[in-house]
């Protein structure tokens, strides 16, 4: 995977967390993730399509996610509320959109976010595409960004939804 | 001043609504996608719309094009994660008057709203 993709996500999560939550983010050592088990109990997932394909996952422990969401929304929201998932989705959406803007490609689309909450869930990335896990340390706890991206080969370079 | 917020994220609508209220705007209607917005513009008659791009059912760009086919004057501000220059150009060609990239600060959104209303000759 092109290392510039990783730096794009590092810059983007730092920008989103500092702008929206006034939270500095310290970046740990990125590593290859080989298992399918979710890193933490709250996963916000974005699909990437077009000339690049793959998935982006923002994974947070429930306690960290609850604190981050309270900073984001200005209120305490229960994890089983639809508003909690909505907020998690919007965060991964902003991180992915910010990173995508640095790719210098016109034809990369990102999906509307999906959010999975609960212990022991599995997030499958595309087979054959390496997944890089980027640990991010904040005052609210650790969050991770998982980036699994590759150039599309012999596929139509049309974004699924340039929305 | 009637303002229509169009975003599929309730969280983002609430954040924008809070900023608008701090600016003194209280007549605010919400829509969760472009189609929902089109169904509300007739009755609500907004003086300003804040439009997300990435939404299910009908995306913001399609909303802007459809809305602009019958309304050339109401100011539209795109508020989106789509930050590429080509996307901004597409949105301006479709008829948006200003563009805000998420994440944004309250000050930035406030500035863009104020400058858009001034540019479009709408009294706030």
Task: Give the tally of β-strands of chain A.
Answer: 8
What is the third-level CATH name, the topology of chain B?
A: Rossmann fold
**What's the CATH architecture of chain B?**
3-Layer(aba) Sandwich
Q: Return the CATH architecture of chain A.
A: 3-Layer(aba) Sandwich
SSE order of chain B, one letter for each helix or strand: EHEHEHEHEH
**Largest interface between protein chains, with number of residues from each side:** A-B, 26 and 27 residues
For the largest beta sheet of chain B, what order do the strands appear in spatially?
A: 2-1-3-4-5
Q: Stretches of chain B where pLDDT falls below 50 for ≥5 residues?
A: none
Return the CATH topology of chain A.
Answer: Chemotaxis protein chec
Describe, in plain words, how this protein is organized in 3D.
The complex is a heterodimer of chains A (163) and B (124). Chain A is α+β, with helices and mostly antiparallel strands. Chain A has one domain (3-148): Chemotaxis protein chec. Chain A has 3 helices and 8 strands. Chain A has helices spanning 3-21, 62-73, 82-100, and strands at 26-27, 31-33, 42-50, 52-60, 108-110, 114-117, 131-138, 141-151. In chain A, strands 1, 2, 3, 4, 5, 6, 7 and 8 form an 8-stranded antiparallel β-sheet that branches. In chain A, helix 1 crosses helix 3 (82-100). Chain A is globular, with a radius of gyration of 15 Å. In chain A, 44% of the residues are buried. The model of chain A has no long low-confidence stretch (mean pLDDT 90). Chain B has a 5-stranded parallel β-sheet, with helices on both faces. Chain B has 124 residues and is of the alpha/beta class. The model of chain B has no long low-confidence stretch (mean pLDDT 95). Chain B has helices at residues 10-22, 34-44, 60-68, 85-94, 106-119; strands at residues 2-6, 27-31, 48-51, 76-80, 98-101. Chain B has one domain (2-119): Rossmann fold (3-Layer(aba) Sandwich). Chain B contains 5 helices and 5 strands. The termini of chain B are close together. Chain A binds chain B through residues 15-16, 19-20, 72-74, 82-83, 86-87, 89-90, 93-94, 96-98, 100-101, 106, 110, 112, 161-163, and chain B through 8-12, 14-15, 18, 53-56, 59-61, 80-84, 86-87, 101-105.
